[in-house]
Write a structure and sequence with these properties.
By secondary structure, this protein is an alpha+beta fold. It is about 40% helix and about 25% strand. Helix 1 runs antiparallel to helix 2. It starts with 7 loop residues before the first helix and ends with a strand.
């Protein structure tokens, strides 16, 4: 198998994918404030945007990784913005703030997450 070279264009595409993913998440959050007669169309537009993002990344051998609900470990390709609050225990990813972008099995853009204590 030929290893895909990670060039500047690929890194730029990954950066753009992260920004588009964040824009879609924000778009979905404000749907509740939209007039009732517009919600369905706006929700469909957001869903379509998410599918397009996945398709375009897939064509380039890339994909988005999110970690909501995952037990946090140093093996995850993320930086925890509140990691210093969890010296002991096994925190859980409460929210993915920025996804990781992966080409094949190579992480080219590390994600950012917010942690919470694991609930027993």
């Amino acid at each position: 198998m030929i290893e895909r070279q990670i060039d500047d264009r690929t890194v730029d595409m990954a950066e753009l994918a992260v920004e588009f993913w964040k824009l879609l998440r924000n778009y979905e959050r404000v749907l509740d404030a939209a007039p009732e007669n517009q919600k369905a169309g706006l929700a469909a537009q957001a869903k379509y945007g998410g599918r397009r993002l996945a398709l375009i990344l897939e064509r380039n051998g890339m994909h988005v990784e999110t970690f909501d609900g995952a037990i946090f470990s140093t093996n995850l390709p993320v930086a925890a913005v509140n990691g210093d609050e969890f010296i002991d225990g096994s925190p859980v990813v409460d929210q993915t703030l920025e996804p990781a972008i992966v080409v094949g099995t190579t992480v080219i853009r590390t994600g950012r997450v917010f942690l919470r204590a694991e609930q027993a």
